[in-house]
């Protein structure tokens, strides 16, 4: 968990950001003062229907996370059994008289979905896609010097394969620009030459004269490093006729620049000021990074001249108990934990990231593959974006690139995910259109696509799948698990087939990097067939990391691996959850979970930020952990037959030696290690020495009986100890442990405090088998934003102040909404309450 010291640094960053915000008075957060309700039309109200009451909310806000989940929700297994619906938001805006004649925009970082923006009852703009940033011009509809009603409508229904939430779930900004102005999104900063000795920073600013007279403006550019030290400045006049635009180009040469990298994420800041005589008429502030990218088959990917292999995590865009709400504190916490787990790259599957998440990746040093779409012209859900794609795709690509182009963390644009059209000639035309559009907007980064040749041949796959199901059912003990056990092998054969080679060749050829989903069977094959093809494993089975990482290390053309997934997510319920044959239970016929299943259950890290055993295994395979990790199989499942284990699943193990009630019962212990041998010692007595990799790679396996006490794993290489780890059984005493990630909070609604709660003994050992009720009460100017656990299946809502711990743990998230002292009281069943205070 991030230390308070780290957060103190970020609080200083927040002060800098506040100062920067004050400087650019043309741009301000527009998150406060909103109300929300389930939508009802005026005609429905006229007919007697009663709409829901308006409730005050603080943006960003997920309209769906507080809805009651239902077992009968249509296609509930896809979105966690949350119902769809239509929602509306409103707030009052008092438009200053002096802004009359200015351009006034509302910038929405994300509204899910089919947004319609009204000003004083008049439609000001619409936006179809739920993930891309968009702006709406509102000054034609404002009454300056008076109050105005801003209303936003949105809806969701059967339009996503995962939990997409609903509502205004990312930041909103109000932008006011005078007739002489820098065009919105009109700044481009690039670093075409960047070394540790010198860098060239090119700044382009598009300036507009919307006034009635010819004007000569002056544009000034000032660069500072992260410490606020000036490092460069330049300026130029620009004369514009009425109603025209022009571009100012400035080239600034920096000596000894601090380069941005994963390990040293140095940022720079540009202040661009437009003068009309002695008056400042517009100001923009842009944060960027100075770094170079190179890509070739011989050296692979290089950043600042250094080879980099991508230790990647696919992530969906929700924040677990928060729903899809994206706020910088939550995103920074997520990126921090992912980095601690050994990842250096994330893929935004399968839609563009929020600005908050990109900012977190910039600040903390995490590489990004930002992705556009999960579908093009062929739908994957009943009402998804495929119906809007042909009309909207170009604007949404433009929006993504405009948002991303100053984020040094972004090194790839992905134009899609598992698009069936990539296996057709016409589909490759669409791929080329998207790729060339991206390149025209930003030639400084690389274009990829998460191509799955299996999906690209979906028209021929269905008969084979039917045959496999039938064959599996006819075998003794056959069924879905037998089919799934061979699914990966079958997919590999199809991926590497000559037909797949032919059908995907053109779609791969339009890319800079061939993104391959579950297609590791092609890596060595394509070395011969396409020697110039550079590959990234854009999505892979978590259980395949050993073989995949060996391929990444062995071949310079294969630049990385992105597991599905680094962080668990809401929806696609149960795809990574092991399910067992239960007495008297109905036979399992699929790999999705039944209500109240909530999450996919396939993350290295659960939705509350707890690292699971697979996370430590991956860290060892990456070569970034020498200490062995003890993973203990849950004794209640020992010897039980699996009904379903998909390729996304790991074992049900836990890093714990606290299993009361199972004394003397058989238990399986796996020690993850890169050593040669591991000795397991229980209460001072050796349980034997096992060879690492004898049964499974990077694992030493022991079958023993549970006895409480101290369990030690000693890793040995060449007969010498190379590392050890220890687990202790929890004692009989139980109390509440509370850890907070920060104690001082901003009061404007943009901050969060994460409170990790656990039932522990006097030594701090977690009682993982203690599932008890706990409550969280907040007093003062704050709200309990969310409360939940990492349970993959639960009927408990995230919006209540009570929950039942899972594996002994829970997470509470508190959001300040005004200045003052905040008191949070955590009460656990059978324990003394714990009180935490915060200042704002």
TrEMBL record:
Residue intervals of the Glycoside hydrolase family domain: 736-836
User: A Pfam family for this UniProt protein?
Assistant: Glyco_hydro2_C5
DUF4982 domain segment(s) = 664-719
Record keywords: Glycosidase, Hydrolase
Give residue ranges for domain Glycoside hydrolase family 2 catalytic.
Answer: 301-463
Q: A Gene Ontology MF term for this entry? A: hydrolase activity
Q: Where is the Glycoside hydrolase family 2 immunoglobulin-like beta-sandwich domain?
A: 188-291
KW Chaperone (keyword) present: no
Q: Which family does it belong to?
A: Belongs to the glycosyl hydrolase 2 family.
Protein name from the UniProt record: Glycoside hydrolase family 2 TIM barrel-domain containing protein
Specify the species: Microbacterium algihabitans
